[in-house]
Structures are given as C-alpha cells and as structure tokens.
Specification:
With about 210 residues, this protein is mainly alpha-helical. It is built from nine helices and five strands, in the order H-H-H-H-H-E-H-E-H-E-H-E-E-H. Helix 1 crosses helix 4 and helix 3 packs across helix 4.
Length: about 210
C-alpha cells in the first residue's frame, strides 16, 4: 500500500522525524529509507534504538495515528496508474488483495477511499505473525482469496516486499518509489503503474510460469 498504491512514505518519514527529534535524537532521510517496506514492529525497534524511550506498541500506534491524521488533512496521494489499474481489475472481476505492513485500521481507511470496492481481502501488519520479507502475508492473502500463487501477481515498491511476494511464489513486479529495485528479486521492474493493465499482468504470469 504505502509507496505502491499511495505516496504516504513522506508522511511516515515526517512522523518518524518529529517523534525522534522530540526525544533529542536525529533522523536523516537515509535513516528513514531503512524502514521502507519493513514491518511496523521491526521499525519500532530501530526507532527505539535511535533514542525513543517508548514501547514498540506505543511507537507503532502513535506513528500510525499521525500518518492517518495527515491523510485526512491532506488527502490520499494516489500513485500514478494505481486506481486505474484497480478499477480495471475490478471491472474484469479479478480477485484482489491488499497486502500491507501498515495496521489494519489504516489499510481499511485507505481502501474505503478508493471510490469503489477495490479489494476482496485486506491483509495488514497486525494480521500476521511474520511480516515481510517473510512470505506469510502473501500466503495468507492467497488462502483468503482461494487462489494459487502460480496464477497471481504481487506488486511492490520495496525490496522486503518484493522478497515476500517472490518467496510466496507470485510473479512479482517491482515499482520503485523511494529506493531502487534494480538489484531486487522482482521478475520485472516498471517505472510506474501508469498505462499498465490486465494484459501486462497476464503476460508476466505467462512468462514466469510457462
């Protein structure tokens, strides 16, 4: 979700920076990039190590609250082509799942603001025991959809997300946002989702699983 469908990474970075600076620490852009695609509780431990004397839960729920407030204040910044691709998939009756390491409450808020029912299933960071890059989030999503990995595509903007989708057996597309995916495990890297549709997804499945 974050970075692939919606450009919320700057919101997360702003919230992280404000929290760490409030406790006298410093948080550079490079520091923030190491959290892209990570599970929230793993990220919270990195933030604790940066000098924030709060529990992991306090950090996770506090940052999520800040980011949700920014979404309501500034609106949801959709990535190019994301809503259009979701709409095409929905119109064609293709089952879809949102697989994100953000909390379920935030994932549902974003999903509800797409403008149509874009997802059959939402699997969030607090729904799984093992976050990305472990394959569990995608495996849980596939089971909920009643689909096999061989007929499915995962779209990710981070290396951890790409590893999760790829290790779950999906044809995996990398769409870089804040970090390069040129050396990732993605089957293919697209500069954006703009202009992409079902034909492109089907072609990739054929190439990967033929």
């Amino acid at each position: 979700m974050d970075g692939t469908l919606v450009d919320t990474e700057p919101y997360w970075i702003a919230a992280e920076t404000a929290l760490i600076e409030a406790y006298g620490g410093t948080w550079t852009h490079q520091d923030a990039l190491q959290l892209v695609g990570q599970g929230l509780w793993a990220s919270a431990e990195i933030i604790r190590a940066a000098g924030v004397p709060l529990s992991a839960d306090e950090i996770v729920y506090g940052l999520t609250s800040e980011v949700r407030a920014l979404l309501r204040e500034r609106g949801i910044p959709w990535q190019p082509g994301a809503r259009e691709l979701l709409e095409e998939l929905r119109e064609a009756g293709v089952p879809t799942a949102l697989v994100t390491m953000s909390l379920r409450e935030m994932a549902l808020e974003v999903a509800e603001n797409v403008g149509f029912t874009a997802f059959d299933v939402v699997i969030a960071g607090d729904d799984v025991a093992r976050p990305k890059p472990h394959p569990e989030p995608y495996l849980v999503a596939l089971e909920a959809l009643g689909r096999s990995a061989q007929g499915s595509v995962g779209i990710e903007d981070s290396r951890t997300g790409v590893r999760s989708a790829r290790s779950a057996g999906l044809a995996t597309i990398g769409v870089p946002h804040m970090i390069s995916l040129d050396d990732s495990d993605a089957h293919v890297v697209w500069p954006s989702l703009a202009g992409r549709g079902i034909v492109d997804l089907h072609q990739l499945i054929q190439e990967v699983h033929s």
